[in-house]
């Protein structure tokens, strides 16, 4: 329906462009250029309409891992030094946030992740923030910059991460919402805020 409306609008615009009945080569050139611009704009409009019809939400982007079992991987907790893996959290809703201290958007969203965990942990939410930096760098950040009041952990080797998580080597932050059965339900690319994260986890709490 949205696509047909867009096509109809393009047809009307094209008729308006041609209504002047050009008689000189210069006028025909202008009509041709205007038509090209209209068609280019129409292509972008149709692309936007199509993406809007298929996207899960304005907050999220498509990821082939959504609605598939979350691959397991292990990590070390910052506070205790204990080794855990993702399977240890089965039965809880897990928001995994891959971040780094050198990443400004990651720093910006950390207070909202802290607040989200404080508000929903009693309902079965785990906010797991994971970096591939050294534990001493993370501990310094926790002490002097922003408290890490989530379940904070680090990776020994980011290259051992299974897909799709290993894409964090191309940029972060990236977040995944995993339901109580261990299925990836949402993928959030880029920085989030409290409202965005809350909307992502609420259907699974």
Structure in words:
This protein is of the alpha/beta class. The chain contains five helices and seven strands, in the order H-H-E-E-E-H-E-H-E-E-E-H. It has helices at 2-18, 25-54, 104-120, 135-144, 194-201, and strands spanning 74-77, 83-85, 93-98, 125-131, 151-154, 174-178, 184-189. Helix 1 (2-18) packs antiparallel against helix 2.
Low-confidence stretches: 1-7, 9-13, 41-61
How is the largest sheet built, in terms of strand order? 2-1-5-4-3-6-7
- Largest sheet descriptor: 7 strands, mixed
N-end to C-end Cα span = 35 Å
Helix content: 40-55%
- Strand portion: 15-25%
The backbone outline, from C-alpha atoms, is globular
Number of E-type strands: 7
Count of helical segments? 5
Oligomer: single chain
Rg: 24 Å
Counting helices, strands and paired strands, the structural category is: alpha/beta
N to C succession of SSEs: HHEEEHEHEEEH
On the 0 to 100 scale, the average pLDDT is 79
